[in-house]
Amino acid sequence: MKKKVSVIIPTYNEEYDIEYCLKSLGNQSLKNIEIIVVDDGSTDKTREIVKKFSKVKLINGVHRGPGYSRNIGAKIAKGEILVFIDSDMEFEKDYIKNLVDPIMKNKKVIGTTHEQEIVKNIENIWSKCWGRIRVSKENAKKVKVFRAARKNEFLNLGGFDPKYGYADDQTFWFKYKLKPVVAPKTICYHRNPETLNGVYKQSRWIGASIDNKLTSNPILKYFLPPALFILSPILIPIYSIKKCYENKNFAILIPWMIIFIFVRYFGTINGLMRKIYLDKNFR
Fold this sequence. Notes:
- By secondary structure, the chain is α/β, with parallel strands linked by helices.
- It has 2 domains: 5-190, Spore Coat Polysaccharide Biosynthesis Protein SpsA, Chain A, CATH 3.90.550.10; 196-278, no CATH class.
- Helix content is 43%, strand content 16%.
- The chain contains 11 helices and 11 strands.
- The protein has helices spanning 18-26, 46-50, 66-76, 95-105, 125-130, 151-156, 171-176, 196-208, 213-216, 224-247, 253-278, and strands at residues 5-11, 33-39, 56-60, 81-84, 89-91, 111-113, 116-119, 133-135, 148-150, 181-182, 187-190.
- The model has no long low-confidence stretch (mean pLDDT 96).
């Protein structure tokens, strides 16, 4: 492969995950890769850990969200193909090679996404409540997240829009209805939050990124958070049962899933309030 690949990782307080991610990248079969970490204003030991990896380029950014950081990395990247990953991910050894292969072979392919994303820390009870499979072969074609893209196309399309927050890597779908090609034999592993505090913060961020007719309506959106508060005694049990059904595991319904959904539910409401009332959409 002649074209150089640049891997871009946005980080924000990832001291527990980033080392696993970078070590996994170091074991990739594709060696001609540039690794760029753009730190989004971490207040923990993330930057110190990254500095231990001499071949990784560290950029100190500001706390504006992962989309903003990904765009910074894209602009300075030397590779013709950009790969966008999260700091809580690990990979099979051929992941990067297989992810960029469709772009290498077909000039019409703008970008790709992976075929499977499996939860690694499933033994943790709160991770188990999230579920084991994030992306399966069966639903990969529905995924709108760009994991790799041609640099020139990425920049011409304006990069990722930070306003979408948690979903900023789906920008090209939201704006242009562009979907990535699923790259075969691409398997990665993801770490779910392992504490209720982590579940709450992740849910808050997801809640602030919800974009639908209700959140876009200039009047109705202000009534959405209080309505969800009122409906919580009904919706939390329903969502708990639904999640157990999806996970095919009703043994964790009481008390674990009920607690998990309770935290997720009110974290999501907090995120909605931050978006609607404060126009804030980043971690």
